[in-house]
Amino acid sequence: MLAELLFTIAALQPRALAQSCPSLTASYPAPSVASGYEARLIAQGLTKPRGIIFDNKGNLLVVERGNGVSAFAVSGTGSCITLSEKKTVVGDGSLNHGIEITDDGKTLYVSSVETVFKYDYDSSSMTTKGQGKAIITGMTSNDLLTRTLLLSRKSKNKLVVSRGGNDNIDLSTVDINNGMSQIRIFDPTKDSQNYTAGTTLGWGLRNAVGVAENPKDGGVWSAENNADNIERDGFEIHENNPAEELNYHGKLDDSNNPLLGKNYGYPLCYGAWNITEIPSAGTLQIGQQFAIAENNATTQDSFCRNDRQAPRLVFQPHTSPLDLKFDGKGENLYVTLHGSWNRHDPVGYSVSVIKFGSDGQPTESSTSTKALSPIISNSNTSGCPGSCFRPAGLGWDRNGRLYMTSDSTGEIYVIVKAGGKALDDSRPAASAASSNSNALSGLLITVLACAFVWFL
Length: 456
Fold this sequence. Notes:
The protein is mainly β.
């Protein structure tokens, strides 16, 4: 009888474990996941989720555009994740994208189109205390409304804030004092700072929504959403130009940073992607900048190459990179590609990875068109953007799992390696004892259930 009981337990255990794993079904075709990875849909019904981050207790905080900031308790192993105990952390409908938190879990930073707010936060109760303080103001614009936040882990008391322009091609941004299309550095311990009072890290950046700091060397990177509907010498070239860009800004703790305050081209210069479609391209190469001045743009190409900072990498136009997250070793940079809205053949709609070398730089050259390797993609982009997920924010939990928000569908996915293994094994994982305890508890429950049924 005991042998038969053990056989029954062995047969039923995989089924019991499978049934215990949360299962949600999307309204669109199942995503395509690259070999060696797993991706699971773990949350639905959110309101345009954008920025995402974990506090020091392992709780998940999400900016729901138009609602504010929500928090979830997280449980589960591998990709079998459950989000529960949803709480409203900040009920402010003006918040639309940016979020950061201190390592001790006591201070939360969030952004609206006009303001960066600072809140006292209690990670034990997933609540804020009192009213938020406006620490950065003066950022209102009519277009490109996100204000990405990056709290440096390598340089003390430095908060990086990225701000887009006021139009598709905003000619007012040729003035550095304008404050538009820039990334600036602030002291987050101070209140009521106007955006133009911050230190300019980089300008000439149309809409650098993705911003990240390499944990290996402190290098700061941004992902540029470039202009739409551009022309050159009277010819429309917008289908395959200009390229989206990955730009390097140096290190915040480097007092001699040669890239501090550099101009990256916009609104006069743009990165090239498809050279054959650019009139009078001459010797122009992929990744180099070209001009779009109304009169004889080719005469301005040398200005763009010599007087403006070139991108480190370029991506296919219209893919719309929105977030960047490095792994703990700085070897992989993960990118959300929100996807195109005005291209004949839809592109983007994926999470991809860029390989970095020991020198803190991408392994691909600046002229490469293959720097991005997709991990999770929409399997049928012909339905995009209306019937597919659109990746927006990324966030790491302490177990090395990567979470992705899809604002268009109100969803959250978790991404791990095959077999439920950590995508980033350099991050502090839950203790083996805890994992073993969970596994043992599951096995014990299965054994007791089987025994009960057997002896009925």
